[in-house]
User: What shape does this take?
Amino acid sequence: MKIFVTRKIHESGINMLRKAGHKVTVYPKDEIIPRTKLLKAVKGCDAILSLLTDKINDEIFAAAGPKLIIVANFAVGFDNIDLEAAKKRNITITNTPSDKVNESVAEHTFALMLALARRITEADDFAKHGKYTGWSPTLLTGTDMHNKTMGLIGAGRIGSMAAFRGVKGFNMKLIYSDLKANKTLEKELGAKKVSQANLLKTADFISLHVPLFPSTRHLISTSEFKLMKPTAFLVNTSRGPVVDEKALLKALKNKQIAGAALDVFECEPAIDCDLRDNLELKKFSNVILTPHIASATQEARRDMSEIAAKNIIAVLKGGKPLTAAK
Ligand code: GLV
Assistant: This one.
């Protein structure tokens, strides 16, 4: 059957699709596929393997035509896909939430927490630019992580894996806010469920792990920053619009928080929504920016490619997807 892949991904999944006898076309350029090309390329497809940078909505479904039965998103998140429109057309949507991928995101989350606490990017810049003239007791002093409180907003799979590192590896205390209680976290890591306001007031390291929904857009904004401790650090490896970047900028300027690390941005693929803010956010030495790479390990990307392929193979055979987006 006919499958379109919107950008080059790890070849293992592509090979699986071809081995299963499907005709696979991969967009040949290493760029986000332009909309007009995407609309043309999906025509007559049975399956699309999309990326989080592709807006998959009814326009795409209509352009693909009636054969389309699955869109396999190469991502854990699927806020780029209109699930309602897919449901109306009976199109299955899948994502790639494997333990391997989630662990990779959790590792990056933790790397950002460590980098903030121990001022790694500042120190690297300092050492590389000839500023080190000898040891000093006050040079680049950071913050301990052990015995500090990690606050998870969203205690799902990725958040829990990041928390495991904090509690087991760094002896941190753990609090979380979520709609549902996570009894495993409570039992295994001694986590305490608290209100979001309470978490914001108490946590030393606040890590965001919620999907992007209308209800989580700007979940962290002016009033939330006001609740945070001036010593608190914020880490976002979820989705950019969960944080109101203008409010973040103000909070940093007013020293309402100690620093922030963002792997995702409100106006992706741009790093900032407007040029003025962009330049300002970059000026803060206590801000770390990484370009949406939390799952960017060889292992995770291979796994993502294979899960997407397995979902497509299963559904095209008339079976159930492994990891339906829900
Ligand atoms: C990356 O952000 C993903 O959702 O996999």
